[in-house]
Structures are given as structure tokens and as C-alpha cells.
Amino acid sequence: MSSDKEEVPSINFEQSKPSIFDSLLSLRQTFSQASAEGFGTKARNAAKTMSVGDVIVPLCGNLAQRQVLANRGIYPGVEYKVCSLRLDKMQFSSMLDVPVVERGNVVAQVKPTYKLRNHLERKDWPVEVNPVNDVPLWLSKTTYEAGTLVGTLGLSFSYLFLASIVAFFLRFAYVPSPSMQPSLNPGDVVLVTRTIWPFQPSIGDVVLFDPPTELNNAIKASGIMQENSRASLPEKGQQFLKRVVAKEGEYVGVKNSEPYVNLSMKNNLIEGEIPPKQRFRVDIVGQYAQPDVFPSDSWNRLPKQLGRNQYFVAGDNGFRSVDSRVWGPLDGK
């Protein structure tokens, strides 16, 4: 005895996931429909055009009115499904079927399309509301979602723009060496602001900069790496912190390792000429620990005018600072 078994076809329950193209197409269709209905203050009020089965969203900016609506089960921003439209005892499938002069008297029964939080749920869904007079604005689901997306994207881009501005102008940096002691110690973290024209560093400001090529040349020419095995050229990406002693146009020199600015010298005076009633601004930083490894004019030289956008910088702790005394002015570009 044989029995024929019915062959059961196999069913693939795995649903195909929408592609990026499908998602973009759906998004485009959403925005196209929302654009036709308007955005923001130009959004079309669906109160006089809603139909049974539509999903609509009430909006209200007045706090007192929002509370009144909430007591009746109408929560702004919640999606509601239109269950029925009634004028007196007559039922309508769409507000467009109701005479224009009577649309303000239509009563709609609505209920949320999804479960709400327990304190918002009611036992008397659907609730009745006069769409035209009770709620300032009803939006279609498409318009509401598109407006929410636009607002979210706008807020996100605003935050990203603000973050990029902050990241461009502000950054944290650590103090790499003892050259700025006692003001700054190695390992300290400082907040650095980027300077742009016309806001340029002033005398006394501490600046963060990449080591100039002149520094590497000075170290190589000094032979300090041969005398001190621990000495080395600045590493790639390493930055320095120094204090501005003089800026463009000023005449700065060095005497006994101390940088000074001759405030009496003018552009029309011959370099080296001693004008009457000289006035100086001196920064006491101290002598370098190994002055003999660098040329003698690093520690004693006559004032020389700084060029355009040039700065003379020095560490507060001259004993451990290789700065503009050795490698010359810093280019502020």
C-alpha cells in the first residue's frame, strides 16, 4: 500500500531589503508630495481636505490651547487616523464632499496610529474633534515627516558648522618642553586660539607654531647633537610654544642673551645710529644653558627691524629655550 505525499512548496521568508536607490526614490517622492503641500507657515492645512482613512498630525503652538487639546486626547505631533467624518447625522468619506460653508461644523473621530505611553492612552478612542475650529493646523503625515526631516537636517548641519568653526579656531595643545617655565610646565594642556587677520598676536602673547626651517639649520650647524647624544631635531608634527617679544616694524636686538626692542629707532634712521633719548623694552629671559654651541651673535647683536608679518619670540625660561635669538624672526604666515 502506497500513499502519495503532497509536496509542500518551500517558502522563502527572507524579505528583500530596499536598496539605497529605492530609499532615495522614496525620499524624493516624499519631498515632492510635501513640496506640493507646502512647508512651514506655507504648509497646506488638511482640516478642510482630510478624508476617512487619512493619517494626519495636529500642530498647535499655543501652550494653553495645547493643554485643552491634550485633555481631549489630541496631542500635537502625534499621528492620527481619521475614522469618520460626520455632519449632524450624515456621514461623509471626505471633507471635500461637504459643502464649503458647512465644513466648520464637521465632527471627526480620530485615534492614534500607534500605541502611546501609558499616561497618554485613553479608553475612549476614537475621540471627537472639530478639525476646522479646534486645532490651528493639521498636516498630512508626508508633510509632517518631510518638515521634521528638514528641521533635523538643518539642526544637524548647524551643529556641524558650529563644531567645525570651533575646531578651526580652538584646539588643545600640550606643553612639550620646560622652555616656558615657570608660566607653563611640561605636560600642561593649554587652550589655543587660531589667529586670523586682522586679529594678530600682540606683544606678550604666547603663540603655538611649527618649528621653522631655520631652527633645524641652526641645530645642524651648531654640532650640539654630536656633543649631546640626547639632543635631536624636532620631530615631525611637534610644535613649540613661545612668547612674542616684538612684532613687525619694531627694531629688536639681543644683549647678554636678553632680547630688547629699541623704541626710539625709526624707519628713516640709519641702522646702528644712536638716536637721542633712547627708549628700550627689555625681556629678561636668561642665558641659554650652552651658549657656546651657537654663534656668538645669537646672544649679542644690534637691533634689526622685523619685516612684514614677522615676530621675535622667546621662551620665558631662556636657560632651556632655543628661540628667535638663535634662529631669527618667526614668519607669521
Provide a concise account of the structure shown.
The chain is an alpha+beta fold and 333 residues long. It is 23% helix and 23% strand.
Uncertain residue ranges:
none
Strand content: 15-25%
Radius of gyration: 38 Å
Q: Mean pLDDT, as a whole number?
A: 83
Helix/strand order, N-terminal first = HEHEEEEHEHEEEHHEEEEEEHE
What helical percentage do the residues reach? 10-25%
The number of E-state strands comes to 16
Inertia-based shape: rod-shaped
Instruction: Name the structural class.
Output: alpha+beta
**Biggest sheet architecture:** 6 strands, antiparallel
Distance between the termini: 99 Å
Tally of DSSP helical segments: 7
Question: What would the keywords be for this entry?
Answer:
333 residues, alpha+beta, four-stranded antiparallel beta sheet, 7 helices, 16 strands, rod-shaped
